């Protein structure tokens, strides 16, 4: 199977498996796992923050960040196409009594400052209105096709948020894809946010784990929420060891995934009955539409899977294909051929 549903399907490298079996271990809830501690230090440095906390998942890391930033009854200003809003089960409302305020997401993944301003209460002293508590931004932006947010925009967003006394949280699940694609270091990207989450288990290929980074006091509070949410693992060094390998050896190779995604988009653009804009592909996510008569998304995906290609439906009439370490150059060529075959047989 050529697996393009997500980069979460990456498997750990041999070096990761070896590191996991040899990791020095302790009890991470007590702060005594040396491998987890080393990973947190390296992770904090990689995004230019004073401290970091290892979390089991990106969902937990984002939730912990929101619980620290937002008091009960306050609003989370978040994109209506963001992972936090769509795919994380409303955790901040369930666990923290916070209100999600969805902001229209622009095609490039940004949130227009005018739209954010419109979400602010006309009179913050009027008790009828829920007050804002945090602004969330996603980089790269998954639902917008892996778009990298421009540095100038992030600077403007930070100035806007600071002007209204609001922290910025960055869901940087794929921040290293953004860094590699833009040539801007991850620390420079994260500098525009008070806190940042990134995944070790997507393109970086670790089997599990995400990082939440920020100021020392912020991370200390997040660590308490991690425990409350059930994320206090014990010998965390078993999977932290893979995270260390991910951060030290897997970042630069993300460029190969981006090249494969670009070639995939270019190949799909040559298929009559497929609508895709290769110029919109900047990282490892390709979004396209099936326009062939008599072929809907469900039947297209089923037929592709039967031929050995797994992709996913992605809303708004789109299909998503994600490249990663498990997808080779030959797989890209085969994927284009399979799509062309499916479309041709449907005619």
Automatic annotation (TrEMBL):
GO cellular component term of the entry, any: cytosol
Residues recorded with modification N6-(pyridoxal phosphate)lysine: 202
Domain of life: Bacteria
GO MF entry, a single one: L-allo-threonine aldolase activity
Cofactor dependency: pyridoxal 5'-phosphate
Keywords from the named record: Lyase, Pyridoxal phosphate
Aromatic amino acid beta-eliminating lyase/threonine aldolase domain segment(s): 4-288
SUPFAM superfamilies (alphabetical): PLP-dependent transferases (SSF53383)
Stated family: Belongs to the threonine aldolase family.
Name this polypeptide is given: Threonine aldolase
Organism of derivation: Streptomyces fuscichromogenes
